[in-house]
Design brief:
Number of domains: 3
Largest sheet: 11 strands, antiparallel
Order of helices and strands: HHEEEEEEEEEEEHHH
Helix content: 25-40%
Distance between the termini: 58 Å
């Protein structure tokens, strides 16, 4: 297959070279344009589907470990290409992304995509759209960043990251999954845990009074903040 692609590329370059000799110089095609054209010709809409079969492992009568509980409409960004309008499933417990390759999602023919090939992905449900990026380990951070998928709900001067987690448990012999979010704030090139009100305030020692005043104005307990409320607080902190 590699030799075939190489041969096709040579023929493509040769044809373009021949064409350029028969037309004016200002219409000639350079090597970069030829490479782009070659990549487009060789690219296929299913190139990203590399992985093993993904099997649903929970009982449908119990809690499940999936973001929003079911499939969503997604876009996958892989190796410089965009694959949109895909039926995807994000498993928060295993931190893997599965794509449904059948015509109808009810057939449950899923492939667990190789994480190393995924740069980022978005998944959309009726009430919300999520954007995830594939992050690597960050040993230099103030908080441990392990390799995996992190949602980016906000990115301006500061960057907000959510790690969606589904913890597996047991209740009288029945498997359970408990959903939680770990909240992380990136300031400059450092990452900080902001899972509590105190941790957020301590990030701004010079402006503690202002931050506390802003928190009181929101009139909601910090651990009950909606996504929009936390982003509003971060926007305020960016002005300090």
């Amino acid at each position: 297959m590699h030799k075939l692609k190489h041969t096709i590329f040579i023929l493509l370059i040769s044809s373009l070279t021949g064409l350029s000799q028969n037309i004016q110089d200002d219409y000639s095609i350079n090597i970069d344009s030829a490479l782009i054209l070659y990549k487009k010709k060789m690219h296929h809409d299913t190139d990203y589907v590399i992985g093993r079969e993904y099997k649903i492992y929970h009982s449908y009568k119990q809690d499940n470990p999936y973001l929003n509980g079911h499939y969503g409409n997604g876009t996958i960004y892989s190796k410089g290409y965009i694959y949109d309008n895909k039926i995807i499933l994000y498993d928060m417990h295993k931190d893997v992304l599965a794509v449904n390759t059948s015509v109808k999602s009810s057939y449950n023919i899923n492939v667990e995509l190789q994480k190393v090939r995924i740069d980022s992905f978005s998944i959309e449900f009726k009430d919300r759209k999520y954007l995830f990026i594939h992050m690597k380990n960050k040993d230099e951070s103030h908080v441990q960043i392990t390799s995996g998928f992190y949602e980016i709900p906000y990115k301006e001067k500061f960057q907000l990251l959510y790690k969606h987690i589904s913890d597996k448990g047991d209740s009288e012999g029945i498997t359970t999954y408990t959903y939680r979010i770990s909240k992380i704030l990136k300031i400059d090139n450092s990452y900080y845990n902001i899972d509590s009100r105190k941790k957020f305030i301590n990030l701004f020692p010079t402006y503690k009074k202002q931050v506390k005043k802003k928190l009181r104005s929101i009139k909601t307990k910090y651990n009950k903040f909606a996504n929009t409320q936390l982003i509003d607080l971060i926007k305020f902190a960016e002005t300090l």
